[in-house]
Structure formats: C-alpha cells, structure tokens
Amino acid sequence: DNRALVVFDFDHTLVDANSDPWVLQLLPETERSLRERSRSGVCWTDCMQEGFRSLHSSGIAPDVIRNRLREVPLTDSVKQTLRLLESLPHVDVIIISDANSQFIDIILSHHGV
Fold first, then answer.
1. Among 89, 62, 100, which residue's Cα sits nearest to residue 3?
2. Rounded average pLDDT over 9-32
3. Catalytic annotation on 16?
4. Which one is catalytic: 1, 9, 76, 92?
5. Catalytic residue chosen out of the listed positions 1, 11, 46, 76
C-alpha cells in the first residue's frame, strides 16, 4: 500500500489562535491571572482546570463556550488544504496536539472540515 500520512498540530497551525486562552477570554481577568501563573511554573493543564472551574462558577454555560470556540479563525488556506488532502485516496490526515480534543472537534466541525 502506497499511503501517505499528513500530520498537523492544531493551535497556531490549523487555527490562527490558541484555543485554550480563546475560551478563557470569556473571563479576561481569569485568563490574565492563569497566564501569569503558567509563566511562573504552574502546569498549564492545572491552570485550565482552574479556568473551567471559574467559567462554571461564573455561570458561563457550555453553549457559550461552544459558541466562543466557533469564533476561532482557521489559518489562511487551511480549509482548502484539508479538503484537498481529504479528496486524495491514498492520504491519511491526523492531528497530534495537546489542544482539548473537544475544542478541536467543535472548531473543525463549525468550519466544515
């Protein structure tokens, strides 16, 4: 089998943003605070966990988060590139990323890729 594998990262590659802070911007003070904590050595995953708790305790509904994610812009020509690769019979495309897999699904589904 003569297959090709094309691998992408997600944040700042397929999308022109970092999806985690994009969501946290729903609470700008929390987003700034968590970025500072991350810079001081706190694990980003722990920061995001705290961010989700803050979103929840502030009454930010899951639909609001999903709608915010739908605003994440794709990088130039990504939609066309992914559609072209999808049309090629011997090409498999995967995403290897530390981005939240639900975020990835929401964003790509919204953009039709």
1. 89
2. 95
3. no
4. 9
5. 11
CA distance linking residue 66 with residue 94, whole number of Å: 22
Average pLDDT score over the chain: 95
**Tokens in use for 21?**
């802070």
9 is catalytic: yes
Which amino acid is it at 76?
D
pLDDT in tens, 56-66: 999 999 999 99
Mean pLDDT of 41-68: 96
CA distances 6 to 62, 79, 81, 90, 93, Å, are: 32, 15, 11, 11, 5
Angle ∠(35,36,37) on CA atoms, nearest 5: 90
Q: For residue 15, what pLDDT band results from cuts at 50, 70 and 90?
A: very high
